[in-house]
Amino acid sequence: MKLFAFFHRWLGVVLGPFFAMWFFSGIVMMYVPFPSVPDEERLTYMSTIDAGAVTIMPATAVAQCGLGQITGLRLISFNARPAYVCAFPEPVLQVHYADDGTRASPLRQDAIRHLIERESDQPIDVITEVDYDQWTVHQKFDAQRPLYRIELADSERTHLYIAPRTGELVQRTTSSQRFWNYIGSVPHWIYPTVLRKHWALWDAVVWWLSLFGILCAVIGVYLGVVHWIRVRRRLQTAISPFRSWMKWHHILGLFAGVIVISWIVSGWLSMDHGRLFSTPNPTLGQVNAVRGGSFGEVSSKANIADLSKHPTAVEYRVHGFAGSPVVVGKNQQGTVSAPILEPVRVADAVADAFPEAIVEKWGVVPLDDRYTQLREGGLPPGTIRVEMSDPRQTWVHIDGRTGQILSVLDQSRRVYRWLYNGLHSLDIPGLVNKRPLWDVVMLILLLAGFAASSTGFVIGIKRVLRTR
């Protein structure tokens, strides 16, 4: 007991502020998510492609970028000319003009200014080149760095982030979003730029911090229950043998201890990244098998006619399915132009890609599916699920328009869904979509956890002051 009390006391001194911060910032995150740009908004900043000016075949563009290296191909309008954008496994992009095949250079600041003035009626205050900042620290921006941050002189103090390599809007924030996220997502995820830009370091720091948090909470609940049992054995009516802040910490810990443990464990699982549970990401072999070959081999079969069927398109993406290219066009409204794949055809392709398993059933994923349509996001409408009979009971989800593997969920990942999404954000059928009931339940639990953590924080400060 003395050893447990020692560890709980000094782990609490260090981690008490984190516990209180996690619960408080969680309340903020219920209503103000981290800034992002929906695909529909990104498309509004893009120009219509001059399909008539395209003379370079996709096969030539693929060869220029590297047949065996390329993993993605798009056609957009860049600098008022049609251009192919090649993606690679590394965070690198190549842009080649589709009218003469020459390599495109990144846009300069004056061109960025012209682009924003054309799409926005708000005056520009400042344009700054940034490599990393708080709102573009995620690794998904790596291929586009450095970015231009355009600060608009509007009432919301909007900041737009434009990628000079492709001329696309990649991030947008307002002063309100920035303020609330500095007391919401940023502290909750331990997300300061100086740490988060080093993904492996950030991952390890948050994982170990959360693991020690679990240890602190479990020991605290155990000690609290033992003290309560001792009081009851003495036939005393009091709940706690302590006084002042220790008394409140003990009582709140007894009632909110399970809440604290469930949230810290589920928060720790958000950093799992394949350590204990499987990940939903398909392997390169699985992707190539469903595609019918490497991306370069399949995408090089696309022709110019496929890229000029829709005169209002602002973006074409080339995919592959069962050995054939699939070209998906989008206009500024986000309307998708692509044929819908037959579920039985998808099932056959998955069966060929997973010869070690038998396809049991397939069909379109319902819009209220409890495993893929979650509060934090879901798969696109028309997604096809193919269920396998392998030992892991794998489910393969295929985009019904592109033929892409969107996710691979086995039994491990489905258990993870309940342990993380179910516990951390109460993403439970029958509750998550019933607002404000969900809000009331979440607020009660978060406030209970915050109260229990705050008393521990105060006790920790008093302990440090007494020790000094």
Notes on the structure:
The structure is a single chain. The chain is α+β, with helices and mostly antiparallel strands. It has a domain at 2-32 and 194-275. It has 14 helices and 16 strands. It has helices at 2-29, 39-44, 58-65, 109-119, 175-182, 185-188, 193-196, 199-233, 244-269, 284-291, 295-299, 343-353, 411-424, 437-467; strands at residues 72-78, 81-87, 93-97, 124-130, 147-152, 159-163, 168-173, 315-321, 324-330, 336-337, 359-364, 373-374, 377-378, 384-388, 395-398, 405-409. The strands form four sheets. Strands 3-2-1-8-9-10 form a six-stranded antiparallel sheet. A four-stranded antiparallel sheet has the order 4-5-6-7. Helix 10 packs across helix 12 (343-353). The radius of gyration is 26 Å and the shape is globular. The two termini are 25 Å apart. The model has no long low-confidence stretch (mean pLDDT 93).
